[in-house]
Q: What sequence folds into this?
């Protein structure tokens, strides 16, 4: 079993149903590299669930960019019950997400099979993206999609500090909390709020 607090645990039956569906689709399209259910639980499910205690309070919507196999957006929707908007431009992966949401009885999950730049979302309480793009590319999306009090949760690997510096150098400001990953000693979760970009100098 993956290492999460009891309050973050999901019923095994729903996790197993999700993993079974993921592996079935993985035979047709490449959703994850792993083929072993135990590896998927630890590498992907637990990695997604560790974001759960850092979600804002309430029932506001979350958005996930580049959702792929459902990590972390679909797992967080399953765990939290929040309305969720999963953005995935690859139509085959989007089809998987649509089927997974239906089979897992997640009517509050909406899949957007569009490019991020073309996607229209309601103001979000939280935005996530996992292994999608550098921070400098994610921040414009965060400004566009987040509500006034919204936060971004971006899991990052060894490049985390370099990406933070690059964002500051590019004129971005934000309130930042660094949360150590519980699944990867080299990884960090960046929790950002009050995201702004300085106006260009005349």
A:
């Amino acid at each position: 079993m993956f290492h999460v607090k009891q309050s973050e645990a999901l019923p095994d039956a729903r996790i197993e149903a999700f993993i079974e569906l993921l592996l079935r689709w993985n035979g047709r399209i490449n959703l994850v590299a792993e083929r072993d259910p135990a590896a998927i639980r630890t590498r992907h499910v637990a990695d997604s669930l560790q974001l759960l205690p850092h979600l804002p309070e309430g029932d506001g919507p979350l958005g996930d960019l580049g959702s792929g196999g459902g990590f972390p957006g679909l797992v967080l929707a399953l765990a939290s019950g929040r309305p969720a908007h999963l953005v995935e431009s690859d139509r085959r992966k989007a089809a998987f997400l649509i089927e997974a949401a239906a089979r897992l009885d997640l009517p509050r999950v909406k899949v957007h099979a569009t490019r991020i730049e073309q996607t229209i979302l309601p103001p979000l309480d939280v935005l996530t993206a996992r292994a999608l793009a550098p921070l400098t590319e994610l921040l414009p999306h965060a400004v566009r999609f987040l509500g006034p009090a919204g936060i971004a949760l971006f899991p990052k690997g060894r490049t985390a500090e370099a990406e933070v510096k690059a964002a500051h150098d590019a004129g971005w400001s934000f309130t930042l909390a660094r949360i150590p990953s519980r699944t990867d000693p080299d990884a960090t979760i960046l929790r950002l709020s009050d995201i702004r970009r300085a106006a260009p100098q005349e």
Remarks:
- The chain has a mean pLDDT of 90.
- The first strand starts at residue 62 and ends at 65.
- The radius of gyration is 16 Å.
